[in-house]
Structures are given as C-alpha cells and as structure tokens.
Amino acid sequence: MKEFNKLLGDRFILQIPEAGLNFVAWxxxxxxxxxxxxxxxxxxxxxxxxxxxxxEAKLTPAFVFxxxxxxxxxxxxxxxxxxxxxx
Length: 87
Prior knowledge:
Blueprint lengths: L1 H7 L3 E4 L6 E6 L5 H11 L4 E2 L12 E5 L5 H15 L1
Antiparallel strand pairs: 1-2, 2-4, 3-4
Helix pairs in contact: 1-3, 2-3
C-alpha cells in the first residue's frame, strides 16, 4: 500500500481496512474514472468500480482492488504497469 501511495498518491486516496482482502482507491479527480477504467482493462488489471456494490448511493468514483490472491511480486509488477500506462 505504501508503494501505491508513493506512485499514485497524486491520483488516488486509499482507504485501507485493518483486515480484509481489498482496498478502496478513491479518485482525486472524478473525471479520471473512464480513463482509469480503460487503462485497467488494457493492461489486464480488474478492479471493480465501487458503484457496483451500491444500489442507490451516489459515491465519489472509486475502485475496489483485491490483493489476497496475488504475491507481493505480482502486485508490484501490476502496479508498475498501471503507473506506466497512466502516464
């Protein structure tokens, strides 16, 4: 999570649970939502839009990233691809 903040803290605000399998990355700029979604699809990262979990609530755009199924090396590799694709 520290690496995510270091590399993408200008684009996201992380909400990290004390325990769990996911974290929420809130977009600092709401208009970036479509671009971030396209980049994720293009490089094979599959976060869920937070809105997927809401029926009526209107939330600031955010993505839910899962991390439990991946090794630290896989997470770092995907993070670096994500950063590179966003720049």
